[in-house]
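Try this one yourself first.
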């Protein structure tokens, strides 16, 4: 049975008005136990914010890590996405990709930093995403090395266009990634085709390491589902927050 202390979560819902996307965008913000505005906190920015909170149970897991695992308090920002345009925003070939990534760095992060006491050093920001959320997180970090250095990728959808972007880079020594993929993801059907996610992740790991990135890489029994990722999320968080 889950300890009731883990369920006493503070989650704030915010809405930003994006002039870049020309629409409103919902955020879910987890504040840690003992939250104090005069302190400062590391921050995790999650793509698919609604799913990270609902299916990944990241707020409950965060409470558990902070209360019982001696992890310093941190803030989580979940950036929600409309599933109808998710590929368009998260894939580098998507028609909303440039606008979304610009919104992320020029509107979402400044909003969070103006309203919450998150740390502003690149080493104190973590990007997290599953599938294409891992993809857009990697692209954000490559495009904005002054902002990001740490990425949690849960079964990243590292299609050929993303691998080509990585291959064009010469120095990714500033990047640190936690990558995990499930061994039952070898013929996964997506909205753009059927892919072998194990092969995609192995190839991308090799490309990243060849360019100096530090990669903690795992393959485990698991499917392309939150049932797999939720169980792996605590170790991923501890990797960067311990």
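Now uncover the answer:
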């Amino acid at each position: 049975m889950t300890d009731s202390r883990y369920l006493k979560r503070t989650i704030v819902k915010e809405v930003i008005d994006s002039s870049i996307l020309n629409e409103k965008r919902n955020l879910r913000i987890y504040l840690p136990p003992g939250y104090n505005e005069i302190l400062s906190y590391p921050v995790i920015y999650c793509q698919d914010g609604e799913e990270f909170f609902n299916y990944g149970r990241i707020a409950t897991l965060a409470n558990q890590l902070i209360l019982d695992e001696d992890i310093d308090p941190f803030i989580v920002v979940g950036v929600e996405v409309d599933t109808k345009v998710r590929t368009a925003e998260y894939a580098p070939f998507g028609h909303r990709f440039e606008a979304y990534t610009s919104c992320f760095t020029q509107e979402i992060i400044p909003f969070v930093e103006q309203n919450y006491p998150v740390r502003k050093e690149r080493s104190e920001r973590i990007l997290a995403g599953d599938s294409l959320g891992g993809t857009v997180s990697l692209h954000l970090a490559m495009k904005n090395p002054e902002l990001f250095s740490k990425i949690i990728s849960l079964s990243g959808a590292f299609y050929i266009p993303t691998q080509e972007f990585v291959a064009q880079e010469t120095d990714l020594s500033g990047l640190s990634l936690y990558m995990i993929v499930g061994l039952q993801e070898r013929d996964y059907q997506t909205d753009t085709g059927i892919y072998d996610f194990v092969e995609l992740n192995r190839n991308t790991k090799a490309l990243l390491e060849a360019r100096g990135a530090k990669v903690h890489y795992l393959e485990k029994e698991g499917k392309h589902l939150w049932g797999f990722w939720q169980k792996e999320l605590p170790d991923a968080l501890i990797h960067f927050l311990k």
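Discussion: Strands lie at 10-18, 23-31, 43-46, 75-79, 125-130, 150-154, 176-182, 188-190, 193-195, 214-220. The chain is about 40% helix and 25% strand.
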